[in-house]
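Session log. Operator J.P. requested a structure for one protein chain; no other inputs attached. Running the standard single-chain path with C-alpha cell output.
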Amino acid sequence: MAKSILIDCDAGIDDAQALFMALCSPEVNVVAITVVQGNVLPRQVSLNVLRILRVADRLDIPLYVGSDKSIMGNERMHDADPYHGRDGLGDSPDTEAVDESLINPEPAANAIVRLCREYKGTLSLVCLGPLTNVATAILQDPSLGENLNHCVIMGGNYYGKGNMTVCSEFNFFSDPEAARIVLTQLGGPITVVGMDPCYENALTWEEYDNLRKMRSKVNDFMRRIEEKLFTKLRASPEWPKYVPCDEFAMAVVINESAIVREFQELYATVEVKGEYTYGMMVVDWSNMLKKPSNVRLVTKIHSDEFLKMLYRTADFK
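Structure written below.
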C-alpha cells in the first residue's frame, strides 16, 4: 500500500525534481502540498508547484500557502542574487499561465494540523524548505507529532560547514527559530537528511548529462529550468559535481531501506544566538547534554540506488 505523504516545500529547482520523484512513484501517495517562504516568496512558490503538478498531470492535489515571514516575523534574509532564479525555477517561464484558483484559501499551517489529524498515525510529513509552516503548526497544536507517522527533513549540517554562512545550511538559516521548534518540540519520529551526505554523494556532471538525455515530459521540463543555473555552475571550479539535496530526502521517504546505508540516533537542536553559528544544527554526538535522542540523522547513502530512482523519474511518461 502506498504511503500517504504531505510535502512542505519552497519549490526551487531541486524541489521540482523531488516533487516529480514523489508524483511518479507508486510507493507514495501525495495527499497535499504546502508552500513556504524560502527560495522565493510563498505566492511564487505556489505558482511553481502548480507548474510542476501540471507537467505531472496531478492538479488534483490540494495546495496551501504559508506565511511570507519567518516564525519570528522577519522578512526573507537572502533576496540578492537568488540561486534558483528570480522565479525560483531558473527564470524559464511557461507560455501558459497556471490557474491560481486552484490555490486553497486555508493557511498552510492550519492545513498541516488538520491533515495530520485526519490521517492520524499514517501520514508522513516531508519538509524540503524552511520549517516555518511546520513550526507554526506545532505552536497551534503541540500534539502534532503524535498524529504523524514520520517527519523527514532536508536541512541542517553536521560538519558545521555552511552554504549560507560559515556554519549554517540554507533551510535552517532561513528560519532558525522554526527549525529549533521542529527538532525539539515536534515529539514524533524525525529523520534528518543534512547537506553533508548530499555533497558526499554528489553526481558527476557526466552522470547528470546521461540522466538528462532521456526524453520525457518530466525530463524536458527539468532540463529547461536547470539550463541557466547549471551552465553557470559547470563553469565554476567551486562546483565540480551536481549536488542534489531535496532529492535525497525524497528518496529516503520513497524507499528508505534501499537508500539509507547508515544513520545515527541522537539529540540535535539549532543555534539561534551565536554570532557565527546562527542557524547551525548542533548535534550532540557524545551525549554531553544527556538528553534523549530526538532525530535519526542520515550519514551514509546508497548513491547507486539513488541514481536508479532519478532515472525512473526521468523516464516518467
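Operator note: The chain has a mean pLDDT of 95.
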